[in-house]
Amino acid sequence: MIPVRTKVAASLYATLSISFWGISFVSTKAVLRTLDPYTLLVLRFAIGAAFLLFLLLLNRYRLKIPFKYIPHLIVLGVLGVFIHQVVQATALLTIDASSAGWMISFSPVFTVILSMLFLHEKMTVPKAIGMIVAITGVLIVTSARNGQSIGFAFNIGYFLMIISTLNWAIYSVLLKKLRIQLPSLVITFYMSLLGFSLTIPFLIRNRGWESISLLTNVEWVHLLFLGVFVSGIAYWYWAKALAVLDASKVSMFLYLEPVTTLVAAILLLHEKIFFISVLGGVIIIIGVVIVNGQKISIFHQYLWRKR
Hints:
The longest helix has 28 residues, at 4-31. The protein has helices at 4-31, 37-58, 70-91, 97-104, 107-118, 125-143, 156-177, 184-206, 209-212, 217-242, 247-251, 257-269, 275-291, 298-305. Helix 5 (107-118) crosses helix 7. The protein is globular, with a radius of gyration of 19 Å. The chain is mainly alpha-helical. Helices cover 75% and strands 0% of the residues. The protein has one domain (4-120, 155-268).
């Protein structure tokens, strides 16, 4: 039986992670005015890895890890760090930060779909209704642009954000299921280091270093936030939350992310927020709540047995 205090602490970790990730869309959008996605990610991962290494040395953690966990860390690093961040940064080249925030809240629906595909959880009427409602919300967000009426205006950015939500659902399930017996801080450090290593070749190909000198002080602040709080603390806290709560429960905190993104986009980017986009986002969240309405599914039970 997990103590209530431990569950509360895990919920707080998840809330902070979601808040940082919600703001990350805004910071990424701000820096993409000067840098290409890969150069941005190289700097972000480098700052994050350096910060996490400092914490590891400060707390005297062992950096040596058992060989059996290396494949697990590579899979998690590629999915949850490299692919996830590249896809999101590329998406933000063509869509605004607030829309990206609404789209990411669709992730829990994919968590349920994965449970049906691989764990043979049955489709129920509430789940079917919830999915239809959530998909309707996604269509509204992706088709409402510049305050116009709903109409087909889908672009590659929205498609990439949908891929991102699916990828994140897979990452959260794997992070829980693989049961890597290492401190969450160590896991986060190696994933950030792997993300840094994988993006360096793209930096060299694009000669990204040439644009670094063009960064303003404000953009450097955004980069430091992305490196320290998003690539460092947020991933670390998310792993700590998943060590206590099951993936489906932690994924429910994603409802908070679009709200954080919306507020940050208005305050920092001065984005215009249109009613139709907000309506679509609210519909997504309502649909996700309906999908996840059952108390304990086969998927939940499976994850708890694996703990």
